[in-house]
Design goal:
By secondary structure, the protein is of the alpha/beta class. The chain is built from 24 helices and 28 strands. It has four domains: 49 residues, no CATH class; 166 residues, Aspartate Aminotransferase, domain 1 (Alpha-Beta Complex), CATH 3.90.1150.10; 244 residues, 3-Layer(aba) Sandwich (Aspartate Aminotransferase, domain 2); 225 residues. Helix 3 runs antiparallel to helix 12, helix 5 runs parallel beside helix 12 and helix 13 runs parallel beside helix 16.
Length: 767
C-alpha cells in the first residue's frame, strides 16, 4: 500500500491520503488510475449524520426543484406556472428590498476607492459611516479577529445596551462573537454542551429543526417540551413551565443530565411572543436546576400583536440577580432587514465561565472568522440612522413600510387560514410564519402510513403538486401526537400572498371532497358563505362617514358582545333596540353585513350613529374585523358604544385582546346571547371569563332570548329587567323552556346561577 502525504496550501494541518486496495470487505479495486466503487458511500456516513433531519430544506424542497425544471419546458402540464416558496424565512427571495442606507455603506466598504467620489452619490452620513468602518478595518478581504472586528463588536454592545436599558450592566464586547448567521453560533455553543446520549437539551415542540438536527449530530438527546396550542383561553401558543420541570425531573430520573434549554422568542414556527413573567419563570427554573439558557431572539423586531413587546432574556437574568448562564443569539436575516445572504449573526455570552468561553473561542478560531462584510453589515443594521441624519427620513419610511406590510400580512394569513374548513390558526403574534393545524381525514392518514410517510408530509407534497406552493410539514418541527400542521411564511408580496391562500383553499376543499368519510362530512359545514357585497359605494361611504360625525356618547359607554344566532337574528336585535328606544348614544359595530339592513331603523330613531368598519381585504363585512389601535383610541375619546358580534372562532381573540382595552378605558361590558348558541360550549374562555367576573363585577348577561325578530314584545319587557333566575339545570337535553339556554351553554354559567331561585344579577337595561 502506498502512502502519500500532501501539504495543502493555506491549511493548518497535514492531510493524509491512503491509496491502495480496499481493506476488509469493502468492495472495489484500483488499478491503472481507475477504481471500482466509492471509498465514501452512504453506508460509511456516520449514523448521527443520517439521523439528523432539517425539514425546512427537506423532501418538499427537493421535489420543488424537479417541478421547477418541468416549468422551464414550454409544454409542461403542471396546473400552475410558478413556484411560490413559502417554506423559509428568506425575505429578499420573495420580493423584499434591502434597506438603502446599509447597502450604500456596504458598497463603499467593499470598494473603498469610491469613497472620494461618494459625496456626489450618497448622503453625507453614509460616507461618514463607511469611512469610520474602513478606518477601523482597512482590509475587508483579510481575516479578522476570530471573535469579530472589535469596533463592530463595540457597536453591537451599544445596541444591546440601548435595547436592555440602564437597569442592567453594560454589555462587554469581549463577550460577543460575530458569526456567519445565528446558526453558526448555535451550533458552536451546542458543541461545548453535548457529547453523549446522557447530555440533554430541552427544546420547544414545535421547534426550529436546527436544534434537533444539531443535537442528533452531536450524539445528544433533545428533550421536547410541548407548547400549549390554546384556542380557548387566548394564550395562543404558550409555554407551560410546570411541564418543563416535569420533563427535567423525568430526564434526571432516567440518569440523564439536562444541560440547558433552548427558547425561541418570538417563536419559530409558532409566532408566539413570551411575556416577561414567562421569561422570569424560565430563568428561575434554570437557576434551580443549574441549566444553561440558549435564547434564540432573531425575530425580536418582528412583533405584530398590539399588546406584546419583546423582552430579552439577558435583561431578565440581570434584573433577577440570578447567576444563570445565558447564550443569546441575533441575526440580520430576519427583522425588517432580511439580509439572509450576507450571513451576519451575533452570539452574546452572559455569566459564562471564563474557561468555557476560551473553549468557544478555540472553536471559532478553527474556522478563522466570520465574513468581514457580514460583520460590518450586522454592526450597521444594529446602529441605523437616527433623527437628524441625512438618511434618516428614507430609512424611517422604509422601515415603517416593511413592518406595516408584514403586520398586515400576518393578519391576512391567519384570517384566510381560519376561513378554510378543517384548518385553524392561532394569531401570528410575531416572527414571519403561521403554523396552522389542519384536519386530515382518517382514510388519508392510513394511506400515508402505507406509503411510509407522515400524513402532513404527504399532504404538503400533494398541495405543492396541485398549487406550486411550498410549505413545511409540521412533523419537521415536532407537534403533539394526533395533530397535523404546516408552516407557511407571511413574506410573499401581498397580492401574490392572497392568490396563494386562495389556491391553498381551493386545493383543500377538493382534498376534503376526495378523502372525507361520511361521518366526517360535518367539517364541511364550516365552509363560510361566500362574501357578496350587497351595498352601493354610496351607502358604504355613508356608513364610514358616520364615524366622523358621531356625537359624544354618554358618560358610561358600553361594549356589547353579541353571541350566537344568525347574523339576521342579531341584526333583528339591533332593529328592536332602535324601535323600542333601548339605550341611547352612538355605536361602533363590527360583524356581519346583515346588520346594515337595519341601518335605516337606527337613523330613524335619531338616537344612534352606527359605524361599520369595512373589511378592506375583500370589500365585504364578513367576520370580525379587529379594531386598529388608533381607531380604538378615537372610539374611547368619543365615548362611543361598541358592538361586537362573534362568529365563534374569533371569540377568544375578542375576550383577550379587545375587551381588556375597553375595560381599562372605563367601558361596561354587557353580553347578549341571541337565540341558542350550542357552539359557545366549545369556547371555554367565555365560561372562565364569566366565573372570574371579567366582564364586570356583577354583570354577566344582559338578556337571553330567542327568535328576536319575531319577539319584540319580549325585548320591550327586558327594559325593566335587573335580575333573572335560571333553572336548576334539570332539563336533560335540548333547550330549556324556562331559561331558553341549551344544555351546553347552561353548563358554562356560574354555579350560583344554576341553583333554583338564585339570581344572576344583570346589567340594568337603559331606560
Amino acid at each position: 500500500m502506498a502512502l502519500q502525504i500532501w501539504r495543502l496550501a493555506g491549511a493548518a494541518a497535514l492531510s493524509v491520503i491512503l491509496l491502495g486496495e480496499a481493506v476488509g470487505d469493502e468492495p472495489g479495486t484500483c488499478s491503472a488510475g481507475s477504481c471500482e466503487g466509492k471509498a465514501l458511500t452512504l453506508a460509511s456516513v456516520p449514523q448521527k449524520i443520517l439521523d439528523a433531519e432539517y425539514a425546512v430544506r427537506g423532501e418538499i424542497v427537493t421535489r420543488s426543484f424537479k417541478l421547477e425544471k418541468l416549468l422551464e419546458q414550454d409544454n409542461h402540464s403542471l396546473p400552475f406556472d410558478e413556484l411560490v416558496p413559502c417554506n423559509i424565512g428568506n425575505p429578499q427571495a420573495v420580493g423584499a428590498r434591502p434597506l438603502t442606507f446599509h447597502r450604500q455603506v456596504l458598497s463603499l466598504m467593499s470598494n473603498p476607492s469610491l469613497i472620494e467620489d461618494a459625496a456626489s452619490l450618497y448622503p453625507a452620513d453614509v460616507v461618514a459611516r463607511a469611512k469610520e468602518y474602513i478606518g477601523k478595518n482597512p482590509k475587508f478581504g483579510a481575516y479578522s479577529h476570530s471573535k469579530g472586528i472589535l469596533h463592530f463588536r463595540r457597536q453591537v454592545a451599544n445596541y444591546i445596551d440601548r435595547r436592555d436599558g440602564a437597569s442592567v450592566p453594560p454589555a462587554d464586547p469581549e463577550d460577543i462573537f460575530l458569526t456567519d448567521g445565528a446558526s453558526a453560533g448555535v451550533k458552536t455553543v451546542l458543541e461545548v454542551m453535548i457529547d453523549s446520549p446522557s447530555d440533554g437539551l430541552l427544546i420547544p415542540i414545535p421547534q426550529y429543526p436546527l436544534y434537533s438536527a444539531s443535537i442528533t449530530r452531536l450524539g445528544g438527546t433533545h428533550i421536547g417540551y410541548e407548547l400549549v396550542e390554546d384556542y380557548v383561553s387566548g394564550k395562543g401558543w404558550a409555554i407551560d413551565v410546570e411541564l418543563i420541570e416535569e420533563k427535567i425531573k423525568s430526564f434526571l430520573a432516567s440518569g440523564g443530565r439536562p444541560k440547558g434549554i433552548a427558547v425561541i422568542n418570538p417563536g419559530n414556527p409558532t409566532g408566539n411572543v413570551l411575556s416577561r413573567e414567562t421569561i422570569e419563570s424560565i430563568v428561575r427554573l434554570c437557576a434551580k436546576y443549574r441549566m444553561v439558557i440558549l435564547a434564540d431572539e432573531v425575530y425580536q423586531e418582528n412583533i405584530w400583536h398590539m399588546d406584546k413587546e419583546f423582552v430579552s432574556f439577558r435583561q431578565v437574568v440581570h434584573q433577577t440577580g440570578l447567576p444563570v448562564e445565558l447564550f443569546s443569539f441575533h441575526s440580520m436575516s430576519k427583522g425588517y432587514y432580511g439580509e439572509c445572504g450576507l450571513r451576519g449573526g451575533v452570539l452574546h455570552m452572559t455569566n459564562i465561565d471564563a474557561d468555557v468561553a476560551d473553549q468557544i473561542y478555540k472553536l471559532f478560531s478553527m474556522i478563522l472568522c466570520a465574513n468581514t462584510l457580514g460583520q460590518g453589515a450586522m454592526a450597521s443594521i444594529l446602529n441605523p440612522p437616527v433623527e437628524g441624519d441625512a438618511s434618516f427620513p428614507l430609512f424611517s419610511q422604509e422601515r415603517s413600510e416593511i413592518l406595516a406590510n408584514l403586520s398586515r400580512k400576518a393578519e391576512l394569513v391567519t384570517q384566510a387560514l381560519n376561513e378554510i374548513p378543517g384548518v385553524q390558526s392561532l394569531p401570528a403574534e410575531g416572527a414571519m410564519y403561521a403554523f396552522p393545524q389542519v384536519y386530515l381525514p382518517e382514510r388519508f392518514v392510513k394511506e400515508s402510513e402505507v406509503l411510509g410517510k407522515a400524513a402532513d408530509m404527504l399532504y404538503c407534497i400533494k398541495m405543492l403538486e396541485a398549487t406550486g406552493v411550498i410549505v413545511v410539514p409540521g412533523s419537521g418541527f415536532g407537534q403533539r401526537n394526533g395533530t397535523w400542521h404546516y408552516r407557511i411564511t407571511i413574506l410573499p408580496e401581498e397580492g401574490k400572498l392572497k392568490r396563494v391562500l386562495e389556491r391553498m383553499k381551493t386545493f383543500h376543499m377538493q382534498f376534503l371532497k376526495e378523502y372525507l368519510g361520511p361521518e366526517e362530512r360535518a367539517i364541511e359545514d364550516k365552509t363560510p358563505t361566500p362574501c357578496q357585497p350587497k351595498y352601493s359605494e354610496q351607502l358604504q361611504k355613508e356608513i364610514i362617514e358616520a364615524h366622523l360625525t358621531a356625537a359624544t356618547g354618554q358618560a358610561e359607554p358600553q361594549l356589547l358582545l353579541m353571541l350566537g344566532g344568525s347574523g339576521a337574528g342579531k341584526g333583528g336585535f339591533l332593529k328592536a333596540m332602535a324601535q323600542h328606544g333601548m339605550d341611547t348614544g352612538n355605536f361602533v359595530l363590527h360583524g356581519l353585513d346583515e346588520y346594515i339592513e337595519y341601518l335605516p331603523e337606527f337613523k330613524a330613531s335619531k338616537q344612534h350613529e352606527l359605524v361599520v368598519f369595512k373589511d378592506a381585504a375583500d370589500g365585504c363585512y364578513s367576520g370580525v374585523i379587529p379594531i386598529a389601535k388608533a381607531a380604538q383610541n378615537e372610539i374611547v375619546k368619543r365615548k362611543q358604544h361598541v358592538i361586537y358580534e362573534d362568529t365563534g372562532k374569533d371569540l377568544d381573540r375578542i375576550l383577550t385582546r379587545i375587551l381588556p382595552f375597553f375595560q381599562k378605558a372605563g367601558y361596561k361590558i354587557a353580553v347578549v346571547l341571541v337565540d341558542n348558541f350550542p357552539a359557545i360550549a366549545k369556547q371555554r374562555s367565555f365560561g372562565r371569563f364569566m366565573r372570574e367576573g371579567r366582564f364586570a363585577s356583577d354583570r354577566y348577561i344582559e338578556s337571553t332570548f330567542k327568535n328576536v325578530p319575531e319577539n319584540y314584545a319580549k325585548l320591550k319587557e327586558l327594559k325593566e329587567v335587573t335580575e333573572a333566575y335560571y333553572c336548576d339545570n334539570s332539563c336533560a337535553e335540548g333547550v330549556c323552556p324556562k331559561c331558553w339556554l341549551d344544555k351546553g351553554t347552561r353548563s358554562l354559567l356560574p354555579e350560583a346561577a344554576l341553583q333554583t331561585g338564585t339570581p344572576l344579577r344583570l346589567h340594568p337595561a337603559a331606560s
